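Appendix B. Raw example, untouched.
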Amino acid sequence: MQTFKIVYLFENEKRYLIDYANIKQGLISDQKDFLGKKDVKKNLKDISRGIPFVLPIGLKCFNYNNVKEIFRIDTKKVFGDIFRINNFNYKPAWSFLEYGNFFCVGGKPKKKYDKLISFIIDHNNKLKDYIKKLQEKKMIVAAFQTRNIPHLGHEEIIKHLLKKSDHVVINPVIGPKKKGDINYFFLKKIYNFLINKKYKNNVSYFPVIANMFYAGPREAMHHTFIRQNLGFDIFCVGRDHAGAEFAYNPNLSIKTALKYRKNFRINLIATNGAYYCKYCKKIVIKGSCKKSKIFCNLQNISGTDFRKKISKKKFFKFADKDIQTYMHGLKKNIFV
């Protein structure tokens, strides 16, 4: 994948070109174009529909000559209905409103962005073809969504998915990132290092070009639709899925996934996260430990603590040492 195009996609306004490409490719739930006021209203009433894709007025990369409708989404609805959050300091919700409250139907990308849109669609089509080829070998294929460097908790979830499938695709969403997320280029290098060391042909790395919204449980539904429309057999929703800034109850996305799993054709699996069991002295998926719950003492594996250790080139006890040594040797900052 050409680096310059990926860097180009990270410019914030270009995220709407990614949204447009995803809509036209059929990756998004019930959307054939950016939504109008009536369809937004329907979406907001039903969290299982995922993220409503809307087009702001005034983007430099879009042409507005044939706009059919202009409408407003109230700020309170963005926070309360889309992000399902009461914290009006939540930055990802303000990012949704970066270009204002007014949206439209009928805007189209300018011609000069046709190649970039084709590039996005072509990449995601290659991912669809890759999944199909695995399935032609009679494999059940699972998607593992991640935006973080892998610690032993992530590895336990991968093992859990391999018990339910023949092949796991590490399938991060790549688009503009929030500060503190790992740079796409390094995420790829680190996961490939892990795969070569431990998983070989059972696990592979292939991202999808789409946007992160950090909208918690609603985004968990959105991610499920994307993986269903890509052709995966299994998708895993985990603890604090697509959350940020500790804004959501960590179990809310899991509860939402279990509530709406019948709305999807894909096999939607919810995991309660991986922890270190002090009694068993090993990493376990919460709820899967065979020992008595009275004795088990689960310790959270903090991705935040892991990132801090890596930034200081120190070792984190709940991550593979070889991977950490590899990361310590990388000359550039791996975080956005």
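End of appendix B.
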